[in-house]
Structure to design on (261 residues):
C-alpha cells in the first residue's frame, strides 16, 4: 500500500486557535497594564484633591465657606472648574489682600503643586473648564489670525497691543505683556472679573492658541520705532506730543523772543 505523506501544513482550526490565543494574551496584557496605569492615575488624582481640600479649609473656607458653597463675602466655587482656580490663585489674585473694585495680580501665595492641588479639589465639586492642554500653549499658532481675533474680541478693553486699559468704576483690563499662556487661555474660558467668557463655540481652542501666539509675538518683538509710550494708542500719544513737544516749541520760541529784546 502506498504510504501517506505529510503535507507539512497546519490544520485551519489550529491556526484559528493560535490567533485567538495570541489576541487574548495581547488583550489581557494591555488591559492589565492600562488598568494598573488608570488605577495609579486615579489614586494620584484623589491624593492631590485631598491635599487641595486641606489647603482650601486652611486658607479659603473662611471666605468661600465649607465645601466652597459661597458666603456673603465670596461666591460659590461649585462648578467653576480647575481653570478658574489655576488662574485666580496662580496669578496671586486670590487670596485677595483687601476688598476693591477687582482682584489684582500680585505675588503668588502658594507653590505650583499647591495651586494644582487646590484646582484639583475644586474640580471635584462640579464640572467646569479644565486646565488647558499644553498643545494650545506653545505660542506656535497662526500669528496673523491671532492678531485679527484679538482685535475683534479683546482690543476694545486690552488695547490692540495688549497694554490694558481703564474701565468703569475703578476697574481695568490688565496689561497682557509676559502673561503666562496658560493664564491667558484660562481667562478666556472662565471670564474673570469683568471679562466675558469665550467658550469653545465662540473661539475654538485652536483660535485661542492663535491669540496666544499673537501675544507671544508682541512679547518677542517690541516696538521697532523706539519709545512706544506704553502702546496706549494714538489719542494718548497725540496728547503727549501736543503737551510736551508743542509745549517745548512754544517755550523755545518765547525764550528766543525774550533774548532778541
Amino acid at each position: 500500500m502506498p504510504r501517506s505523506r505529510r503535507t507539512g501544513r497546519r490544520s485551519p482550526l489550529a491556526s484559528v486557535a493560535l490567533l485567538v490565543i495570541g489576541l487574548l494574551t495581547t488583550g489581557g496584557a494591555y488591559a492589565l497594564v492600562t488598568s494598573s496605569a488608570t488605577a495609579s492615575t486615579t489614586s494620584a488624582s484623589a491624593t492631590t484633591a485631598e491635599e487641595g481640600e486641606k489647603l482650601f479649609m486652611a486658607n479659603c473656607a473662611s471666605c468661600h465657606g465649607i465645601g466652597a458653597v459661597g458666603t456673603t463675602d465670596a461666591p460659590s466655587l461649585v462648578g467653576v472648574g480647575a481653570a478658574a482656580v489655576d488662574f485666580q490663585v496662580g496669578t496671586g489674585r486670590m487670596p485677595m489682600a483687601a476688598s476693591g473694585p477687582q482682584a489684582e495680580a500680585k505675588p503668588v501665595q502658594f507653590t505650583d503643586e499647591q495651586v494644582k492641588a487646590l484646582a484639583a479639589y475644586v474640580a471635584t465639586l462640579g464640572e467646569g473648564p479644565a486646565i488647558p492642554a499644553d498643545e494650545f500653549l506653545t505660542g506656535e499658532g497662526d500669528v496673523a489670525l491671532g492678531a485679527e481675533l484679538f482685535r475683534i474680541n479683546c482690543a476694545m478693553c486690552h488695547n490692540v497691543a495688549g497694554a490694558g486699559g481703564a474701565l468703569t468704576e475703578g476697574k481695568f483690563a490688565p496689561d497682557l505683556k509676559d502673561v503666562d499662556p496658560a493664564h491667558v487661555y484660562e481667562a478666556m474660558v472662565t471670564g474673570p472679573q469683568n471679562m466675558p467668557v469665550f467658550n469653545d463655540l465662540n473661539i475654538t481652542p485652536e483660535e485661542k492658541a492663535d491669540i496666544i501666539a499673537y501675544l507671544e509675538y508682541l512679547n518677542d518683538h517690541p516696538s521697532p520705532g523706539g519709545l512706544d509710550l506704553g502702546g496706549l494708542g494714538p489719542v494718548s500719544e497725540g496728547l503727549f506730543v501736543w503737551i510736551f513737544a508743542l509745549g517745548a516749541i512754544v517755550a523755545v520760541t518765547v525764550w528766543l523772543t525774550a533774548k532778541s529784546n
